[in-house]
From TrEMBL:
It comes from Rahnella inusitata. Keywords: Kinase, Transferase. Its EC number is 2.7.1.55. InterPro entries: ATPase_NBD, ROK. SUPFAM superfamilies: Actin-like ATPase domain. Gene3D superfamilies: 3.30.420.40. This is Allose kinase. It comes from the Bacteria. Signal peptide: none annotated. GO terms for molecular function: D-allose kinase activity.
Amino acid sequence: MPHFLGVDVGGTNTRLMLMDSQQQFRGYQKTPTQSWAGQSSPLQGLEALIAEFLHTQDPHCQVAQVMLGLPGVLSRDRNTVLSLPFISALDNQPVAALLSERLHLPVTMDKDVNHLMWWDLQQHGALPDVAVGLYLGTGLGNSLWINGDFYHGAHGGAGELGHIPLPGNLLLCPCGKTGCVETLTSGNWLTGWARQHVPQTPFAELFTWHAGHDDLIEFVARLARTVASEMNILDPEFLVLGGGVLAMANFPLSQLEQQLRSHLRSPYPANGLSIHFSAITDETGCRGACLAAQRIFQSQPAVAARPFSLRREA
């Protein structure tokens, strides 16, 4: 039976999971990203991580497709990493092709946020024509589903909503620009604010105890304005809101939706937008990557899945 491997690379952790052709998942594993990305050759480290994972799960596993999810900018054809801020050694590298050659398995890659979105789309029946996903975690992830497929833009850089400049914002963004909305609307900003203003409060309880603080009220309002701007440009029928920040205890989801809707242009998208909140879990990214791997496999000419064999260097 063919299996599909999803690899979800995050700034903190890398997650791996297998799925069979009946969409049964198994073998979830979470590993600190620096355990491989901090090596002198991150690509070799990632190869070893994947190889050992597959060997541990089942050395005779029939692997049909491997899918990488990366939190950076990829080329339009998804063959080259253009910018991966926390693993810059992989910039301008054909990472999927190199891994495929090393592992002797078909490997493809996409933005990690598209895998979150693909998972969420699969939970809601018929696929919409136009949909948007906003996932607020460490940064602000943005997935665009337009005319029945993910939209990458002319060069691969579409969906960088977190890098719209805000007037009067002088903060330096990890992307190298100044004033990006992500510097004020992200988990990173919340962490810094909590450390400075309410250090005694556990971060997970930030909105339980301080949702009424003016700074956090403005945080929610800023997020609503940012999302509404994209809604008014794209006029989607379906919006998914998710990510670790929105999953925090007592995050004011109803206020976010109310404020977002108050900024929508009438009659559309105001009257046609369906908003859904993602039930995101620790496994969602690699589950979505597995489903994306199966989608890629099914779209290609029939190729037999191959048993994985752990390659040993001479």
